[in-house]
Fold this sequence. Notes:
By secondary structure, this protein is of the alpha/beta class.
Amino acid sequence: xxxxxxxxxxxxxxxxxxxxxxxxxxxxxxxxxxxxxxxxxxxxxxxxxxxxxxxxxxxxxxxxxxxxxxxxxxxxxxxxxxxxxxxxxxxxxxxxxxxxxxxxxxxxxxxxxxxxxxxxxxxxxxxxxxxxxxxxxxxxxxxxxxxxxxxxxxxxxxxxxxxxxxxxxxxxxxxxxxxxxxxxxxxxxxxxxxxxxxxxxxxxxxxxxxxxxxxxxxxxxxxxxxxxxxxxxxxxxxxxxxxxxxxxxxxxxxxxxxxxxxxxxxxxxxxxxxxxxxxxxxxxxxxxxxxxxxxxxxxxxxxxxxxxxxxxxxxxxxxxxxxxxxxxxxxxxxxxxxxxxxxxxxxxxxxxxxxxxxxxxxxxxxxxxxxxxx
Length: 374
């Protein structure tokens, strides 16, 4: 159902007992398969060992937008794709597409490998069998970078991930598979860093994505992923001053902060990291902090109210995910103040323990409802 047909906004906060859900897996492996199968106008690599009822592919998509990124990440990205059962037989049928973005330190295989917690092929198969979802193509690009994740943003250091997702990847999928090539039939979702990417890219590109589902998005407010203890500040300063002393990368306590600075405070004159630290001499640098803050959804959302009013919007978070729940509640309040229709739910859970269940019982049914079919 298109957003343009109208839908009530509702905010839900649930304190019900945690419901246990069994998440099945398919026989997928994490390696790139060697067998080739033709789909639509292009060629892709399939996985002959897959036990899914649909078809699982892993392809490489070359990106101009990511070329020349200062981190040195490969601009040719792996992309995992789920084609629903019957795709090869029903040659006249075109399908809606869901772009599902993964989280920090993950890859596309975090949703498509045999041991994936949120197993996209197995879950899609199961919901189709129970008729709780409808057939759609599901696409997950690999957004792993040298610092653990791109934040799906745009800059010289990480590359222009926003253009890669919203333009190049969509164009590739539309030209190689039988998609419905219209924003009303295209949705974007993600968890954590992927939730941030879905919200950022979705609200900035309503001409590409009509529908958004954001799960436990990181990076919502100004202080997200900014070191806030003396130890973290010292670690950030030492790492940015002497990265050669850290052959295994930054300490885990500041890894998200480093990725955030690389995404939102790029600096081509500062090799080898090519970004500015938000701290100088133990003090917060207001100029760098301001550049990073400008990329936070709570700072951006006022600029995109017109776009958001045309879109289907849903987001949720576990009540034990305290900081993110607080930030998403603020986003809910902002959208409510602007009278932007949306769905928001706080459920019993933490940052990740119920994501497989939410993908099955909320995300896939949601996009089955809102994405248009022809």
